[in-house]
Amino acid sequence: MELSSSERIVGGLWGSVVGDALGVPVEFSDRKERKRDPVTDMRGYGTHHQPPGTWSDDSSLILCTVESLLDGFIPYHMGQLFIRWYQEGHWTPWGKVFDVGGTTRSAIRRLSTCFEPEQAGDVDEGSNGNGSLMRILPVGLHFATLPPKNLIDNAHRASSLTHRHPRSQMACGFYCLMVAALLKGLTPLDAYAHAAQTASTVYWERPFSTERSHFKRLFSSKVHSLRESAIGSDGYVVHTLEAAIWCLLNSSSFREAVLKAVNLGEDTDTTGCVTGGLAGIYYGFSSIPEEWINGLAQREKIQALLDDFVNEIIKKSEGV
Question: How far apart are CA 252 and CA 254, in angstroms?
């Protein structure tokens, strides 16, 4: 699909926020409920009692990441913006935080007590929620032109601010490989195959080699062939990554992909967000329903930030 890089970058970022906002009102609902009452458009209130167009901590931390990358990748700066979000409501839709994962909360508290930023994330196996995967998209976009190993290393470093376990780092690395491939114009299936092959080649050394079994289905390049009943949609990072890829590869439009993701139920905002990032890159900004974007909280403020981000990437690519 012939689209400009800026169309894909902006599409991915807006796609994430839209997918997040679609999922917020029905978060924690089960799949059976979503079958009975599927999400087909923006809703309000529901789980978190927020008005339509409200996005969650997923988008807040994406936007903090975007802002931090305007000055280059400085983990300390990124961590300080996460703290501002948690303590002051920076990059929240209505000026206050209404939802935050436990692992992210703990890491941000450590970030605020002078920890080395890349040592703040938890490393225990129980800390493999999707809290770093949900915000990693801007890192993938910013470093998409680097060699795969360098791209992955940056994904790992950014993940480590809140989620330092190798499994979470690998999920972020895999996602960023897909982001880079989609930016080049590869089809979703080819982008997935490329990411699977590259990740399978890269992740042979410890500590990542011991985690390979958890990515067996993804490395097979066949996760899209699974039945919906085999796809998890809870907050576990591997399930979220699998679900996003499954939704993308089993859809033929942005709208279909994000609605499919949200209607899997459970962690609806994050599954929608992570799927929306991939679908937005592939189908482009113009594929996102205009009414969904116009209905988002802080739309103009987000637009200004994303314009700055795209301009920064273009300048970097041109060597300015």
Answer: 7
Give the predicted TM-score (pTM) of the model: 0.97
- Please state which architecture CATH assigns to domain 5-317: Orthogonal Bundle (1.10)
CA distances 119 to 111, 163, 174, Å, are 9, 9, 21
Can you tell me the distance from the alpha carbon of 127 to that of 162, in angstroms, rounded to the nearest whole number?
Answer: 9
Comparing CA positions, the residue from 134, 137, 131, 130 lying closest to residue 154 is 137
What are the φ/ψ torsions at residue 129 (nearest 5 degrees)? -75, 180
C-alpha 120/C-alpha 122 separation (Å) is 7
Question: What is the spatial distance between Cα 255 and Cα 269, in angstroms, rounded to a whole number?
Answer: 15
Torsion sign, CA atoms 235, 229, 225, 269: negative
Q: Which residues in the chain belong to E strands, given as ranges? A: none
Domain boundaries, the chain: 5-317
Runs of H (alpha helix) within 227-298: 237-249, 254-262, 268-283, 290-294
Contacts of 269 (CB under 8 A, 6+ apart): 19, 20, 21, 22, 23, 24, 27, 55, 56, 58
User: Which distant-in-sequence residues (6+ apart) come within 8 Å of 1 by Cβ?
Assistant: 185, 187, 282, 283, 284
The per-residue pLDDT for 13 is: 98
For 51-86, write each residue's pLDDT tens digit.
Answer: 999 999 999 999 999 999 999 999 999 999 999 999
pLDDT of residue 238: 98
End-to-end CA distance of the chain: 28
Short-list 240, 256, 238, CA closest to 248: 256
d(CA 234, CA 41): 22
Report the largest interatomic distance among the alpha carbons of the chain, rounded to a whole angstrom: 53
pLDDT given at position 229: 98
Which residue stretches of the chain have pLDDT < 70?
1, 318-320
